[in-house]
Amino acid sequence: MKKEKSSNVIIKAVSKPFKGEAGKTGDWRSQTPVIDQEKCSQKESCLLCWMYCPDGVISREFPLEIDLEFCKGCGICAQECPRKAITMIDGREAPVE
Amino acid sequence: MATSAAKLLPKEEYILPGTRSCAACGLMLTYRHALKALNPGKTIVAVPASCMTVLHGVYPVTPVKTICINNPFGATGAAASGIAAGLKALGHDDYTVLAFAGDGGTYDIGIQALSGALERGTNFLYICYDNEGYMNTGTQRSSASPAGAITSTTPVLSKLQHKKNMIGIIEAHRIPYIATASPSFPLDLFDKVKTARDTLGSRYMEIHAPCPPGWGFPNKDLIKMGKLAVDSGIHVLFEIKEGFFQLTSRSLNLAEKGKRKPVADYVKGQTRFKKINQQQVEALQDFVDKRWNEFLERHQKNS
Fold this sequence. Notes:
The complex is a heterodimer.
Chain A: E1 16-17, E2 31-35, H1 48-52, H2 76-80, E3 86-90
Antiparallel strand pairs in A: 2-3
Chain B: H1 26-37, E1 43-47, H2 51-55, E2 61-62, E3 67-70, H3 76-90, E4 96-102, H4 104-108, H5 111-119, E5 124-130, H6 166-171, E6 177-181, H7 186-197, E7 202-208, H8 212-215, H9 222-232, E8 238-241, E9 244-247, H10 249-257, H11 263-268, H12 278-302
Parallel strand pairs in B: 1-3, 1-4, 4-5, 5-7, 6-7
Antiparallel strand pairs in B: 6-8, 8-9
Helix pairs in contact in B: 1-7, 3-5
C-alpha cells in the first residue's frame, strides 16, 4: 500500500448527524402516551404538546402522531394538553385498536 | 414583534430524536427552541464538559445538526473567543458563535474565561442553562444551587448559601444584551435568543432549566415547575438592552398584577428541599423578595 503524504491526510474526527444516537430511546419508557384524536382540537392555534415536547417526537401536522420509537415517555404532553386528549397508559406499547 | 403562538415557531427540528438526555430534560427543551431561533447552518457551538456534551453524543455520531466544538470545562469563553477570531480573520461575518454552558461551567469553573471574553467584547452569544448544580456528574453543589437544597456534596445540612448574583457580575462588564428565559415559556425564550442573535457584541442569556432527576420532581411536572419558579420569583424573566432594564413575559404580568406565589409552593414539590425548615424557607423568601423588589424598582424607573 502506498503511503499517503502527511499533508494530504485530513483527520476527520467529526461526528455526523444521526437519528437515534443513543439507540431506540423508546425502550426507556415505562408509560406510553395515547392521543384521543376526537378530543384533540386539531387546530394550529394549540400545538402545545408539540411545543413542550423536549425531544420533539410529536408531529407538527394533524392528526398528531407520536414517534413511539423514540418517545421517552416523560408525560409532559399529557400534563400540558388543555383538552386532556393525551393519556399515559402503563407499559411500553400502545394498545392495538 | 413578539411571537404569540406555538404555530409561529419554525417547523424544522435541529435535534434528531434518540438523544442521550434524560426524559423531560429542561436543557433539551431549551436547546431545541434556542436552535430554532438561531440559524443552525450558520452557527458554531462551543460546549464544555456537561450535560450538553452528553446530549451531543458519542463519536462518530451526534443527534444535533449544527457544528459543535467540545472544549474543556473551564474554557468555554476562551474557545468561543477563538472561534469568533477565526471567523473574523476568514471574513465569515454571517456566523453566530454560541457558547452553551451549564451553571457549573458558568458560575464556577468557567467564570474567568467568560469574564475575559466579555471584557474583550467578543462577538458571541453565551447561554448559561442553569439547572442549579453539577447535574451531569451527580447533583453536586454549585454556586447556583439555592439555599436549603440537598446536593450530593451538601447531604446533611443542605446548602447554606444563597445563589450567586451572576447577572450582576455580567452586567458589570457593560455588554449590549443580557436576558433571562425559561423553557416553560418557549415563545419568550425564542424571541430573546432571536434578539440576541441579531445584536452585535457580547450577549449573555441565563435560562432556568429544571432538572427532574436532580431536583426530585416527577418528569411530567417539568413545565409546571419552570412556571412555578417564575411565578414565585425564584427566577425572574427580564431583558437588559444597553443597560435598559425591562421585565418581560410572565414576570411583567406579575409586576403589573402583583400576585407572586410564595416560595413555599415551589419548595414543597421537590425532594431536594426535603430537609428545609421553616426558618430556611423564610430566609429564601426574604432573599427572593429583596431581589424581586430591586428588579421591580429598576423596571418602574424605566417604564
